Amino acid sequence: MKATHDILIETKRALPALAASGEKKNAALKAIASRLIDEKDVILQANALDVEAAKERLGDVMIDRLTLTEARIEGMSQGVLDVAALADPEGRVLRRIERPNGIVIEKTSVPLGVVSIIYESRPNVTSDAAVLALKSGNAVVLRGGREAFRSNQAIVNAIHHGLEDAGLPPELVGFIEDTDHRSADEIMNAVGLVDMLIPRGGAGLIRRCVENALVPCIHTGTGICHVYVDAAADQEKALNIIENAKTSRPSVCNAEEALLVHKDAAESFLPKLKERLVDQRVDRGLVPVELRLDKRAAAIIDGTPAGELDFDTEFLDYILAVAVVDDVDAAIEHIGLHSTGHSESIITEDPEAAAKFTSLVDSAAVYVNVSTRFTDGGEFGLGCEMGISTQKLHARGPMGLEELNTYKYIIRGDGQIR
Amino acid sequence: MKATHDILIETKRALPALAASGEKKNAALKAIASRLIDEKDVILQANALDVEAAKERLGDVMIDRLTLTEARIEGMSQGVLDVAALADPEGRVLRRIERPNGIVIEKTSVPLGVVSIIYESRPNVTSDAAVLALKSGNAVVLRGGREAFRSNQAIVNAIHHGLEDAGLPPELVGFIEDTDHRSADEIMNAVGLVDMLIPRGGAGLIRRCVENALVPCIHTGTGICHVYVDAAADQEKALNIIENAKTSRPSVCNAEEALLVHKDAAESFLPKLKERLVDQRVDRGLVPVELRLDKRAAAIIDGTPAGELDFDTEFLDYILAVAVVDDVDAAIEHIGLHSTGHSESIITEDPEAAAKFTSLVDSAAVYVNVSTRFTDGGEFGLGCEMGISTQKLHARGPMGLEELNTYKYIIRGDGQIR
Question: What is the pLDDT of residues A366-379, one digit of tens each?
Fold first, then answer.
C-alpha cells in the first residue's frame, strides 16, 4: 500500500503539468469518458466484490448507493463529457482596472491548486470529483470510503489511463489507498500540499474535518431546510412542494425538515397537509410522514407533540416538524434561529412577501415556490458538484467549476514605482 | 466599560436595519464624512492624549502612524466620500441560470453579515473599516489597539452620530472598549455573532487569530515579496523598481524582501545594484540597504553572506536577500518554495518570460515591470482596504467592497418539484 504522504507529494508535483490549455484539459476529459466505457467490465467486477463484501454490514439504501450497473457507468461517462462541454472557469478576467498611472490590473480566475475530497460510499463521486477538479485546472486527492474501495480504484485506473492517453501525468488524480482514519487525518494536516479540503458524507465526517483540519476546509452538507407556507400561498402548490421536499429522498441534505405555516393559512392548510402526508400516503401504500407539531399546529390537527429539539434536528427520515407562525417576519426569524443555512423555500403568490423572504433569509439557496430538493450541482446546471457548502466564505451552495477556482491579480506596467 | 459580548450581540441585532437601499447607505456615509469634519477638534484632542501617553513606549515611526492632524482627518473624511462613490457591491447577479424546467437561478451577491477587524495602532483604520463594511451592507465590530483607544473612540462617536443623522442605528458599528487580550479572544470565539474576522497588524496578532479563531478568519498581511530580474530586463527599470520596492517603506507587507537575478544578467546587473542600493544611498545621506548574498551573487559583488533563513524572512527593514538563478523557471520554483503568496514582480521585456511568470507564480498579486508596493486597496482603486489576504479561499490580495460580500442563490419558480 502506497503511503498517503507520498501520494500527496506526487499530486502536488504533478500540478504544473496541468497549466494546460482548455483544449488539452478537454482532450483528457474525453479520453477519461472513453476509458470508463472501455473498462466497464473491470469496474463492474470490482464493484460486485465491494457489494458482496458490504451486504452483511449495510442496509438496502446504502447497498443501492454503492451498486454500479452498466447504465450507471454510462451515465458517469456521459457526466464527464457534460463537464467537458461547460465553459472553462480558468483565466476569466473578473475585473479589469486601469489606473491613472498606467498600470493595468486584471483580477483573474486561477485554479486553487490541489483539492482533496474525503467521501463515503457512492463510487460516482470518484469520477465527478476528478473531472470537476481537472476541468477547473486543479489536481485532486481522492479519499473514498472503505465500502467502495475496489470500485473507486477501478474507476481511478480508468481515469489514469485517460490522462495518459491525453499525455498528462496520472498523478494529477491522487488516490489514497489507506481507508483508515489515519489517512483522513493526514490529509487534514497536509499544510502546503492541499489547498482546499471538502468533506462529503455524514455529519460525523464533516464535523471532524471542520474542527480538526489545518488545511482550508469547506463546511458542507448539513441541511435543516425549511418550507414556509405564506398566507398568500397557492395551497395546492404548497402540498406538492412539501411532499416532494420531504419524501422524494428523505436521507439527503436538501430534504425539508421543518414546515412553518402562516397563522391565517393554518386552519385551512394543516388538515390538507395531514391528509396528503399521512392519510393519502397510507392509502397509497407509501411511508406516511410523522408530523411533530408545535402547540398552535396541534390545536388544529393530530400528530406527535414537538419536543424541544425537533426544530433543530436533521431527521433525514419521514419526520416533519411543523409550527404555526404569525407572519413572514416570524418565519424569517425562526429560520434565522434554527436553519443550518442550506436551503429554504417560501410558498406565496405575494411578491412582497417573496421579496422580504429572499432578502432576509440568510441561507445558501432561497426559493420561491420551488422544492428545496433542487439544491444540487446537476439541477443547477453545473454538471455535477464537489459538495454543497453551508458556510459563507469562498463558496456557498453547490460547488461547481467556478468554486474550484480562486483568483489572482495580474498587474502589468512599464516601470511604475510608488 | 461595556462587555465585549454585549457589543457583539447588539451589533448582530442591529444588522437587519441595514438591509437598506444603496441610497440610504450612501446617505449614511455622507453624514459620517460630515461628522468627521464637524468633530475634528474633539478627535484631535483625543488623539493628543493618545500620543502623549504613547510617547514613552513607542518609537518615532509608530508615533507618526498614531498621530492625527487636521489634514489627516480631512483625508479620512474624503476617504469616506470616495467609498460612497464606488459601485454598490450588494445585489449583483453574478450568474443567471435558466433551467429547462422553468426555474430561474440567480447567484446574487449579499453581505456577509457581521464583519470584525482586530487592528493595531493607526486610527484611520477605524473609519476605513467602518465605511467599507457599511457600504457593502455589513455591520462591523471594531477592536483597535490600546495606543489609539481615545482616538478610535472619538472617531467612532462621529460615525455613530453620522449613522443617527441618517436614521440608522449606531449599533451597526460596534466598538469594543476592552483592549485587553480577552476581548480579542472573545471575538475569535464568537461563533454565530461574527461572520468574518480580519486581523490587521503584526505577525503575532495574525498568527494568534488564524490558529485560534473559531469564527471564519482571513490570513492577512505577511509578505515575503520577490522581484525577479530576467535576462531580458531593462536594467534601469529594474533598479528603479527594486529601490522603490525595498526602500520606499520597508516596514510594510508589500515591500520587497528578496531579489532573484537571472545568471545571464547577474554580471552586469549586480554591480549596478550595489551602487544604487548601497553606495549612492550613502552619498545621498539615505539608509543603505544591507545585501545578503547567496554564493553566486557573492562571487560578483561584496555583501553579507546570506544565512539559511534569509530567504524565508520578512525583514521589514533595509535588508535584501539576493540570489542568482538559472532562468525564469528556477525563479518561479524559488518563489514557490519561499514566498508567502503576497506579491511578486518580474522585470523583463520578454513577453514569453512574463507570461510564464504570471501564469505559474501562485501569489495574490503578480506584477510585470511594476513595483510590488502597489498591492494596496487605494492603489488598486478599491477606495481603501480591510486588509490584504494571503490565503486562497474567499479573498486574495487587497480586500475591498466585493470581498466583504458572499453570495446566495435565489431561485424562483411556479411550483416545480423534483
Answer: 999 999 999 999 99
ipTM of the complex: 0.94
Q: Which residues of chain A have a CB within 8 Å of the CB of B364? A: 408-409
A20 pLDDT exceeds 70? no
CATH class of A4-218+399-412: alpha beta
Q: H or E segment at A409?
A: strand A405-416
Map out the domains of chain B as residue ranges.
Answer: 4-218+399-412, 225-374
Percent of chain A residues topping a pLDDT of 90 = 88
In chain B, % helix, strand, coil (3-state, to 5) comes to 45, 20, 35
Q: Is B196 on the interface with A (CB under 8 A)?
A: yes
Whole-number percent of chain B with pLDDT over 70 = 100
pLDDT at B20: 66
B408–A364 CB contact, under 8 Å:
yes
Q: Tell me which chain B residue has its CA closest to the CA of residue A416.
A: B370
**What DSSP string runs through B367-413?**
EEEE-GGG-STTTTTSSS-S-EE-SSSS--EE--SGGGEEEEEEEEE
Which pLDDT tens digit goes with each residue over A299-331? Answer: 999 999 999 899 999 999 999 999 999 999 999
Return the pLDDT at B56. Answer: 87
Q: Cβ contacts (< 8 Å) between B234 and chain A: which residues?
A: 415
On the question of pLDDT at A210 being above 90, the answer is no
* A chain contacts of residue B252, beta-carbon cutoff 8 Å: none
Spell out which residues of chain B touch residue A396, defining contact as CB-CB under 8 Å.
406-409
The mean pLDDT value for B387-414 works out to: 96
- Residue of A215, A409, A412, A414 to mutate for B, most B C-beta atoms under 10 A: A409
- Three-state SS for chain A is CCCHHHHHHHHHHHHHHHCCCHHHHHHHHHHHHHHHHHCHHHHHHHHHHHHHHHCCCCCHHHHHHHCCCHHHHHHHHHHHHHHHHCCCCCCCEEEEEECCCCCEEEEEEEECCEEEEEECCCCHHHHHHHHHHHHCCCEEEEECCHHHHHHHHHHHHHHHHHHHHCCCCHHHEEECCCCCHHHHHHHHCCCCCCCEEEEECCHHHHHHHHHHCCCCECCECCCCEEEEECCCCCHHHHHHHHHHHHHCCCCCCCCEEEEEEEHHHHHHHHHHHHHHHHHHHHHCCCCCCEEEECHHHHCCCCCEECCCCHHHCCCCCCEEEEEEECCHHHHHHHHHHHCCCCEEEEECCCHHHHHHHHHHCCCCEEEEEECHHHCCCCCCCCCCCCCEECCCCCCCEECCCHHHEEEEEEEEEEEECC
From chain B residues 285-324, the ones with a CB under 8 A of any chain A CB are none
Q: Please give, rounded to a whole number of angstroms, the shortest distance from the CA of B364 to a CA of chain A.
A: 5
pTM: 0.93
Binary contact (A393, B216; C-beta < 8 A): yes
pLDDT in tens, A85-141: 999 999 999 999 999 999 999 999 999 999 999 998 789 999 999 999 999 999 999
**B207 lies within 8 A of chain A by CB:** no
A41-to-A37, A45, A46, A415 alpha-carbon distances in Å: 9, 6, 9, 61
The reply to whether B198 touches chain A by the CB within 8 Å rule is no
The CATH code for residues B225-374 is: 3.40.309.10
Residue B394: closest C-alpha in chain A? A394
Any chain A CB within 8 A of the CB of B391? yes
pLDDT digits (tens, 9 = 90+) for B349-371: 999 999 999 999 999 999 999 99
CB contact under 8 A, B364 and A408: yes
Q: Decide if A374 touches B, using CB distance below 8 A.
A: yes
Residue A347's SS3 state is strand
